[in-house]
Amino acid sequence: MNILLLLNLPPEVRVKYEQRLKRRFPQLRIDLVDHHSKVDPYIGAADVLITFGAHMADHVLEKGTRLKWIQALGTGVDGICDRPALRDGMIVTNMHGLHGESMSESALLSMLALARSLPRNLRNQARHAWERFTVKLVSGKTVGILGVGAIARDLAPRCKALGMTVLGITSAKRELPGFDRMAGREELAALVPELDFLILLTPYSEATRGIVNATVLSAMKRSAFLVNLARGGVVDEPALLEALRRGTLAGAALDVFATEPLPEDHPFWDMPNVIITPHLGGFHDEYAEKALPVIEENLERFLAGDQAAMRNVVKPG
Length: 317
Prior knowledge:
Blueprint lengths: L1 E5 L4 H14 L4 E5 L6 H4 L4 E4 L6 H6 L5 E4 L18 E3 L6 H16 L2 H9 L15 E5 L3 H12 L3 E6 L10 E4 L3 H4 L5 E4 L13 H6 L5 E4 L8 H10 L4 E4 L19 E3 L10 H17 L9 E3 L2
Parallel strand pairs: 1-2, 1-3, 3-4, 4-5, 6-7, 6-9, 7-8, 9-10, 10-11, 11-12
Antiparallel strand pairs: 5-13
């Protein structure tokens, strides 16, 4: 049994996965690469692939002719399940339920940084400029969360603790703690005029591709902010760029993009009303320690032939 770790992560992080799995499963061959361009010496013999959807490429699945199971290290499996080369019989599992705390903290950081013009302060610090200006409160404001899953259920009570009104936008309306009201996904354009913040947490799919489009953006308050922690494809990026340039939207905090890494010449980099982070929303110093027990449990069950008992199966074999 051969396992390939495809992890484009800092060296000290990816080695945690390699070393712990080698200790726990010394009978297995475990190889590690940090980019999909380096898989060729290993992928043809690999039975199991452990990776993030964002780290994948078509040739990985095309050359992985022995692959039987892919363990996604994120919640989203776009980049894996939406690739034509994914064969019938391959199992795909994910890390559902692991991201509530980190993503919630990222959302809160983004809202507070936008409301209090943190980038402007940092630019002033860099040029030693003492400039005082009026900032905004988040208390008393209304936040809409598009995508009401495990992360949103963690985030909503935290927003309430800051004195915010919380609206959920979802394909499956139901009452949940921390939400003042729920709306259907089809009501998005009609709802956004109420919002001071729109936070995107929805999975990427054909149904959500470009859902935040020019119509939605033009309906938002000029004082409103957008926070995208979902996937870049959820937003019509040219329409967002235009709204930010024209000032019909106050600002945005963007952690995910249609093309990653974000090209060096992309206009988002130089916009004073945009905060850019490199897909860090769910990433933190304890992630490996939280993910590895799930990987180990799934690997034990996979080796025992008990595939039906594997955790977080997104695509059965």
